Amino acid sequence: MLHFLAKIIFLLILIFIYCEFVIYYFVLLTCSWPQLSKVDQDFTIKSSNDRNQKPLHVMFISDTHLLGSREGHWLDKLRREWQMHRSFQSARFLFDPHVIFFLGDVTDEGKWCSDQEWETTVQRFHSLFSVPSDTKLYVLAGNHDVGFHYDVSDGRLKRFEASFQAPHVRLITIDNNDNNNIYFILINSMAFEGDQCRLCARAEQELNEIIQDLKQARISSKPILLSHFPLYRMSDANCTQWVQSSSSYTSARFVPHKERFDVLSREASQHLLETIQPRLVFTGHTHDFCYTRHTGINGRLIPEWTVPSFSWRNRDDPSLMLLSITTNNQRVSHCYLPRETTIFWSYGIGGCLWIFYILFGRRRPFYLFAFFFLRKRIRFLN
Fold first, then answer.
1. pTM (2 decimals)?
2. pLDDT over threshold 60, residue 207
3. Distances from the Cα of 97 to the Cαs of 55, 122, 277, in angstroms?
4. pLDDT tens digits for 313-341?
5. Environment class of residue 259 by beta-carbon count within 10 Å: exposed (0-12), middle (13-18) or buried (19+)?
6. Predicted pLDDT at 28
7. Backbone φ/ψ region at 2: left (φ over 0), alpha (ψ -120 to 50), beta
8. CA 153 to CA 131: how far, in whole Å?
9. Strand locations in the chain (E)
10. Does residue 365 surpass a pLDDT of 60?
11. How far apart are CA 45 and CA 41, in angstroms?
12. What's the CA gap between 204 and 14, in Å, rounded?
């Protein structure tokens, strides 16, 4: 009888381990770093002489929305954060990226919370998304972190900048061996409203300084632009690839985007494309996946990927994106995480099998019930 009880407990533990740990590896193993192809290579840029040079591996994550004290139940908070923690650590273990970018809205209540609660949330962020010392991690500001442009305060901007070393505009230079640098320009989307406010003026000054530094360095490879808000597009109907949250029941693809709320303004987007002339653009904010292309100077097409939310709270099928890149070549992969509904179904099926084993795992399951009944009777008599 005790041997049978041990089997029951062991099966229960196996179901828990599969649903809370193993399934993340199984799902992520269906994805891998994209392999570079000469079809995508820019032959106008001289490549490295080292034929064995490996590409830089970059992971993009967006809209984690860590809950605070106002929104959501504590169980909802625990469940979502455990999902993101396991997803992130499983992906980091399997893919071992060189660089990780969080594209804004790392918190859900940063624009409301006190300084003390903010510090607690930042500590929780670093605990959930911890990385080894040889992995670089950078964070962009989102509207939930500091507020929309009309609601931004100097205090929230300063504490975000202090917590994540994230000024309004930042240049990240990654040395990908043999001085083949890859450049990333990170912007605070709320600072590109174009209304000449102090926030926008500082961002414009920082951007101009970075562009001048890049011109003086005479770089051959154009930078990658990272922003929380997508560049201007009328709606997601412009996306040649588009994946809305499977938890949404109505299609929002043809709903027009609101400038300065859903996307950057048309003027700000054009200004960034002309000033930076990026080779690629990665954004977040909408919680849905989108691939689109913009027309830059001389008619050059500039691809933009909008990264979906990383949290079950925003979509049933969260995901991340992987970028393999060199100075003259790049390729992107879209990697899905386990669906929340898949976890529920796994628990349901596992629970049914567990109950079936309890009832029919022995030739005489009556012994199991008799054991508990007699034990209670003995205790009562004593």
1. 0.90
2. yes
3. 11, 22, 26
4. 999 999 999 999 999 899 999 999 999 99
5. middle
6. 97
7. alpha
8. 30
9. 56-61, 99-102, 136-139, 169-175, 181-187, 224-226, 241-243, 280-283, 289-295, 301-306, 319-325, 330-336
10. no
11. 9
12. 55
Angle subtended at Cα 278 by Cα 188 and Cα 329, rounded to the nearest 5 degrees: 125
Please name which of 129, 120, 117 lies closest in space to residue 86, comparing C-alpha atoms.
Answer: 129
Rounded to an integer, the average pLDDT of 46-75 is: 84
Gap between the Cα atoms of 211 and 273, Å rounded: 12
Of 244, 314, 308, 246, the closest CA to residue 282 belongs to 308
Torsion of CA 246, 249, 255, 260, to 10 degrees: -60
The answer for residues whose C-beta is within 8 angstroms of residue 27's C-beta and 6 or more apart is 336, 337, 338
Instruction: Kindly report the number of other CB atoms within 10 A of residue 18's CB atom.
Output: 15
Number of other residues whose CB lies within 10 A of the CB of residue 250 = 6
pLDDT at residue 369 in the model? 53
What is the model's pLDDT at position 248?
Answer: 46
CA angle 36, 37, 41 (to 5 degrees): 100
Mean per-residue pLDDT over the chain, rounded: 88
Structure-model confidence comparison of residues 251 and 40, the more confident one: 40
Would you give the DSSP letter of residue 328?
S
Burial grade of 191 (CB within 10 A; 0-12, 13-18, 19 or more): buried
| pLDDT cut 70: percent of the chain above it | 88
DSSP string computed for 54-118: PPEEEEEEB---B--SSSS-HHHHHHHHHHHHHHHHHHHHHH--SEEEE-S--BSSTTTS-HHHH
**Looking at the predicted structure, is the pLDDT value of residue 250 above 70?**
no
Residues 6+ away with beta carbon under 8 Å from 278: 185, 222, 223, 224, 225, 272, 296, 302
Q: What is the DSSP letter of 217?
A: H
Query: Around Cβ 103, how many Cβ atoms within 10 Å?
Result: 29
Q: Read off the pLDDT band of 381 (50, 70, 90).
A: very low
Q: How far apart are the first and last CA of the chain?
A: 22
